Amino acid sequence: MRITNETTVTINYKLSRQNGEVLEETEKGDPLIYFHGLEMLLPELEKELEGKIPGDKIHLELKAEDAFGTRREELIAKLPASNFEEASELEKGQEIVLDNGKEEAIMLVTDITEDFITVDGNHPYADMDVIFDVEILEVHKTTDEDLNNFEHGHDGDCCCEECNDH
Q: What is the percentage of the chain residues whose pLDDT exceeds 70?
């Protein structure tokens, strides 16, 4: 089966920088599963995967602006430590979720002082030209079971009460 919208796709991938530094990769026996057409991957990567079949491999080089974007200074904020209920437990390098009442954002804590916490909402790979090497392992029509397993964060062999109620 070819990768199209409403298919569930299993891939192995390696994401690296132009200099060869590996940023991420799937581990042997633990591939990535995604739903094609639901914007779970970068748009350029999803477009490149469209129409491929199991066994196909792709090599995709992306400039920063087509990958994880360029750094934006407006996504960095120095906030009063009093805004954080548990400021004393925060650590530099920790990811936190901030909610402004309209939406949530994942932020990286970049500096901590007694009075202020500095957070950065830029993607960690912002400003990086990257390379994706991807192998398509499996493609099938998305089922209700696929969606249910994803919703609950399970791998399909789940025996939890929540999944068994569906």
A: 90
